[in-house]
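Exercise 7 asks you to align residues with tokens for two separate proteins.
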Amino acid sequence: MQSLLLHALKMLDVGKWPIFSLCSQEELKLIRQACVFGSAGNEVLYVTENDEVFVLGMNCSGCLGTGDVQSTIEPKRLDSLCGKKIACLSYGSGPHVVLATEEGEVYTWGHNAYSQLGNGTTNHGLVPCQVSTNLVNKKVIEVACGSHHSMVLTSDGEVYTWGYNNSGQVGSGSTANQPIPRRVTSCLQNKVVVNIACGQMCSMAVVENGEVYVWGYNGNGQLGLGSSGNQPTPCRIAALQGIRVQRVCVLQGWGTHSFSGQLCQEPDDHLTVAQSLKKEFDNPETADLKFLVDGKYIHVHKVLLKIRCEHFRSILNNDDEIIEMSEFSYPVYRAFLEYLYTDSIRLPPEDAIGLLDLATLYRENRLKKLCQQTIKQGICEENAIALLSAAVKYEAQDLEEFCFRFCINHLTVVTQTQGFAEMDHDLLKNFISKASRVGAFRN
């Protein structure tokens, strides 16, 4: 999710990345720039010495830009980007990809459920397309991506954002998603920005005098403002007064730290039990069972599944080798199986509802709680009613109360959405009754 200067990723031995084992030695020798991305490092974009652009890997949400969503174990050339001289690239959780060329053009593709591609739609982008709306005659020199929002910096020091905005990460002053690039103004109106970065659901910018401005999700105090309330517009970090900052990045020095322990430990060859289990997930060399979901295999170990899940204790047989699964999508079922190995989930909020359905069906109460936490992070006015409906359906009481409170706090906007207009009759009656009891309709 961080902005990646491809020149900085020039490595002496790209073959150390597992994904490059699919390339021949002749192909590896030609690589000049490379970026490995995706939640498991299963996708890669690389540039050769003669400025040809190739992609390889899983292709989740069409993030390889090949025109389809089919995985590829052979490098495919992206003709539309060949010769463009890629300057910087960033990617989100979907993943979606944003890159800028040396000429300052911006191209996006991949996951687009929240308009993070900036093309005014929510259709996934299967090929790289130039983003021109509000960026005409602008030269983009830096790009950054959060989970589902995008940000660019122009050569004249202006910042433009678009995409998911449930926590104010777009900096528009509202929590409505932003379908096309919009200039971030407010406190940055007359400032010259020199550097940008994105967290998962927050954004930050450094101006030419070294001040740092932040906005977006702040539930754990990660913005460094001395509070835990979300910030819908840029706000200067007063605690850095007198310190001239040059660059910002996505590491957190305050608030919740998602990568705790990974950046500052002494090298240690010893793996804990938890680390060993995590490493073995989807390992075809040691697995004794494969799940076939949406035409893709997930490799697992019967004994671990039986230890971790009551559902599997009752259905697995010793002679099972392949089990075909059609009830749930590949991202959802993969996330569930990975949870059994790691006790955590890695899934976008929009897919977490499917995982909540699975957790309810399999009676996995801890997983159900984790799903609710993830779904909460993805709530906005447009989907609040849908999430409330899902919470009621799957008897997720904590999520139901959270969604209800969100709807009450954003009642005017929520009641004008398509979701509210199509709300189930019984759910609508209960909603109005409960809203009345908490005084939502008082003048």
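Second protein for Exercise 7:
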Amino acid sequence: KMAFQEESPIFVALLARCTADDPKRRPTAIEIEKTLDLYITVFNEIILKKHPSYMNLSTEDKNEIFIAFYQKFHPLATEFIRKKFPSEFLDNSENVPGVKVDKDAGNQIRIECPMQ
């Protein structure tokens, strides 16, 4: 199992799932993509539109702003994802935020995601 020298202040649950010993507990690539897309979209709408100088800030300042955004937005994102994607899309949905892909009876992939 991977071990990080420093714990990330963001995406802790997602990182833990990505490095899970049991491959069945790991998120799919689509789940990771859609989860990150949600954060990117909202970050762009909230931070970049209100603070156009963000891109010119130092890495430390960018990190501070992003971490503050993440801490405020994460509970809302988690709730949104849980409501948008019923429990059958999620493994252990009470504890794990994210998006899962479902296959219908014809083995066709179904995914609803407004974050495209």
